[in-house]
Structures are given as C-alpha cells and as structure tokens.
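To: structure desk
From: M.T.
Subject: fold request, one chain
Message: Could you run this one when you get a chance? Sequence is below, nothing fancy, just the single chain.
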Amino acid sequence: MNFETEAIRVQLDNALHREHSVPLFMTSSFTFADAEEARAMFNDEISGNIYSRYSNPNTDEFITKLCRLEGAEDGISTATGMSAMFTSIAALLNQGDHVLASRAIFGSTHQLFTKIFPKWGIEHSYFNIHRPEKWEELIQPNTKMIFVETPSNPGLDIIDLEYLGKVAEKHNLILNVDNCFATPYLQNPIDFGAHLVTHSATKYIDGQGRALGGAIVGKKELIDEIQFFARHTGPAMSPFNAWILSKSLETLAIRMERHCENARKIAEYFEGHDELEVTKYPFLESHPQHELAKKQMKYGGGIVTFIVKGGLERGEAFLNHLKMLSLTPNLGDTRTTVTHPASTTHSKLTEEERAKVGIAPGLVRISVGLENVNDILADIEQALHATRLKTVSKF
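Reply: Done. Structure tokens follow.
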C-alpha cells in the first residue's frame, strides 16, 4: 500500500466489539489464562501483553504503523523525543565506546554528549557538517555509532545519508538518524543505510501540540537490545499518548504537504528581504545543500529560519511584536510557532558553540503551521516593519 493508505489502514487486530476506531487500553497490566501462559510469556516463549511498561495494544499499534512508514524491521515507543535519543544510544554503548556525531544537533542532544554520557565513560567527537571529506578521519578504534540529525535543528543543515551509510558499513558502525524534522513522509533514512531512526513524536507526528512521545525504529537485533534496556529503565509511552499519535499518523501526509507548501512560499517571499541577512530553507536554490536536500527529501519541510538584521536585541524585539504567531519552543504544530534559539533552546551553548553550528544572535526559527499563508506572511512582515533598525524597540 502507499504511504497515506498504510498510515490509515495499518491496525492491530484487537477489535473485541467490532469497533472501527481503535479504543484506548488504559490498563497498567494484563491477566494470564493460567500459570503456564504467564511463565511462557515472561520467558519470551510466546508473545503477549504483560505490563504496559513493556507493551500495550496502543503502543504496539503506534510503533507497528511507524515501522511500516519508515521501512523498519521493529521499533519501540518512548515517553518523549529526548528519551528516544537517550535510549537509542545508552542501550547500545558501553564504557570506553565512542560516538561520532554531527555538531549540528539539538541542544538537549548536545547536553547528552557533553554532560551526561562522559559520566559513564562514553566519548564523542563532532564533525564539521561542511567538511565531509574529513568525517571518516575522525573514526577511532573505539567508535561504535554515528549520530546525526538532518535537517538539523535549527540550522537546517543537510547531511549526506547515503555517504554516511557507506562509511558505517565500511567500519561496521551503527548509523543512528534523528528524523524529527523530515518525518517518514519526507525522508526514510533506512533507504540510505541507517540502522536506527529516532523521532520526537511530540512534533510533526502529533502535529497539534497535544502529546509528548518518542520512537526508535530500525534493525531488529538492535531494537531487541534497546527494548531490554527500556523495559528495565522505564521510558514508556502512555497508552493514551500512543492512541493520539497513532491517529495523528493518519493525517501526517496531508499535513506535511501543507506545512511544506506554506514554508516554501514564506521562504521565497522573504528571501532577499531588506530587514533580513539570510533566509534559509532546504528547497531554496540558495541553500548550500539544495541538491542534496532534493535527493533525500520529498519536500523541503516545514521549518524556515531567518537571521534578522540587528542581532540579539532585534531578534527579541521581532518576537515581541508578533501578533498572531505563537512564541513557544515546540514545533510541528498546526499553529505557526516562532523561537529565538540563542536565548532559548540553545542558550546553554556558549556563543562560540552556537557560532559553529550557524546559530547567529539574530537567528529566528519559524515552524510554519497550517493557517492561511497570507496571514502568516502578514504577521511576520508587520513585526519586521515595526522593529526595523531605525526604530528598534523591545516593547
């Protein structure tokens, strides 16, 4: 079946009352027919639900559907996107192991590599996304995993997944790709050689700012290890959230098409604007990795970034003058949301660290929603006009 059909029609056979919409299974545990069934299930001799920290019909359906959409063998859902990132790494690495990662990653993922994993003796090296000829040189004898996100948050850098897939195969490494910005509708990293794909389902997969969730999908032998780790450390997704997210997948394709259409129009409109230094969007020809983006992605995604003239003060003033767009760190919502990364999501990075990944003081990230694009354009335009350099004000 095609993507849209699978997202709607893949359902687990749990219908007890011939219900057309999958019901909620809000239970902490499940009963056994007899003692022998309990023994066999706990020893993995037969499949079935034991405890909702392990599995639940709602989480099973959500992850089964996502695996089909990503082309993955197996998967596991988690409570949040960051629990997915953490679990996908912590479950597979040991003391003394090394991760090669793109420097252009989400701020909290950066904190994992620099503040948390070093406590366990897990090392990392960052590669410069703009110097792919140097990436392979950073692989060490103890390197076990390559971790990247593409497009990156918030810089919208694109990483060559096919090349990294070949590097991972050559050196017997696990390629772990954060696919949050693209979603399985726009990009399937497994097709390019990824072994694991991670998601913050809180973003576009939910799409309406309602529920937290994460997911890890990929090779079954890796997911088996990850599942063991997750069962005993407990980053379980709520059945209620899984129910919401599974239903959300049914509209992912049509929502992403509108997100992308609106984002492209906004990027084209504001490219070269007098009040902006840079407008960045993967499907603009001016994007440094435009051709690579078109090779890997179906459309350009729903995120546009601006660097407003005037730096940090102007960036904050711009946000304060928006009338309709929402100021929030979340993205992928039906509502257009705006963030100033230097003072919020990436504020824990030093100024030098932000500069290395293209986060200028005046950078503004816009997650383009599903409103009429003319209303989004008008709000951005009036905020730029109200804060133009000769009248800049924070109030």
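Reply (cont.): The first strand starts at residue 74 and ends at 78. Let me know if you need anything else for the meeting.
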